[in-house]
Amino acid sequence: MRMAELSERSGVAIPTIRFYLREGLLAPGRATSPNQAEYHSEHVRSLKLIRTLVEVGGLSLTRVREVLEFIRAKDSELYPVLGGVQYALMEPPAGIDDEAGRAARDQVDRLVADRGWQVRPDNPARVALAHALASLNRLGQDDVAAKLDLYADAAETLARREVPDLLGRDSVEAMAEGVIAYDVLGDALVSALRRLAQESVVTVHLRRTP
């Protein structure tokens, strides 16, 4: 297919496609003349993936490049590829060195240990969770922080349903793309569903209140 069809099928504008080609995020097509190239379905798939990472995931191009490098490492072992993709999906938060930050990091370590979660010390989600807990502490939102185990239960329930489906895919590349689907689009789904449910519960509550 030509560039115009690639743009139409992927939903990505031609100038943006050319930018991704220049940046090395998208593999070049097969040259058919000095100014023309042929593209195929894998280019459409790659563009949709990049678009998801940028528009939904909010990742920088540097972070997108890291994710794509892990996905394209087809000869690598499964665990490092999937872990690398998941870790690359998160922009590393800045360190937190005040009292609230240190207390939050300790709380995260206790949570992981108490639940028996097999999580590496360098998982960026540890720092992200500590940031959230420290911010709740600074704001005095103790009722939210007190629900940490409830949130952890929900997260573990989701993970136990997601991971078997993810690992059942037929290739490392498909599994890596599944990590993106669950972690980027799955997070967006859960966030949106939660807000819809909150509005519904508040509305019902207010209607019952005299």
TrEMBL record:
Signal peptide: none annotated. One of its GO terms (molecular function) is DNA-binding transcription factor activity. It holds the Pfam family MerR_1. It comes from Kribbella flavida (strain DSM 17836 / JCM 10339 / NBRC 14399). InterPro entries: DNA-bd_dom_put_sf, MerR-type_HTH_dom, MerR_fam. The keyword Hydrolase does not apply. Keywords: DNA-binding. Residues 1-70 form the HTH merR-type domain. This is Transcriptional regulator, MerR family. PROSITE patterns: HTH_MERR_2.
